[in-house]
Design goal:
- This is Ribosomal silencing factor RsfS.
- With 129 residues, the chain is of the alpha+beta class.
- It has one domain: 2-Layer Sandwich (Beta Polymerase, domain 2), CATH 3.30.460.10.
- The protein contains four helices and six strands.
- Helix 1 runs antiparallel to helix 2.
């Protein structure tokens, strides 16, 4: 396999992961879904952030569970690390190249993570409901 084939395969795998995560968030009616392409930002912690909001700790927990289950079932992948599930105010699901941040709305507003990574290429996903 040539280097270009490996890179194209990795890109396709990452895009499939992003698509599956967004689908899982939409399944549980996550709001304000944004995709941040950090691949061109020097020293970023991941290539992609996916950020969304839930209305309660119950919904935030359900969103995280939906992401993990759909990715595991459909792509046979598991997160490298998950944190924040104790109180479900801000749950982070880390797939290494793609990191999902699931916030309660007021916590998202407080930390304003969008501003921190404002120089990233940002795609806003419209709600399907």
């Amino acid at each position: 396999m040539q280097i270009i084939d490996i890179l194209m395969n990795k890109t396709a795998e990452k895009q499939a992961l992003i698509d599956k995560i967004v689908e899982a968030i939409q399944d549980v009616k996550g709001e304000d879904i944004m995709i941040f392409d950090l691949s061109k930002i020097e020293n970023s912690v991941a290539e992609t952030f996916i950020i969304c909001s839930g209305n309660s700790n119950t919904q935030v927990s359900a969103l995280a569970g939906s992401v993990e289950k759909k990715v595991r079932n459909d792509l046979k992948d598991r997160p490298w690390h998950v944190e924040g599930t104790e109180n479900s105010m801000w749950v982070l699901v880390d797939y290494v190249t793609v990191v999902v941040h699931i916030f309660q709305k007021e916590i998202r507003e407080y930390y304003d993570i969008e501003e921190l990574w404002g120089d990233a290429a940002i795609t806003k996903i419209e709600n399907e409901f």
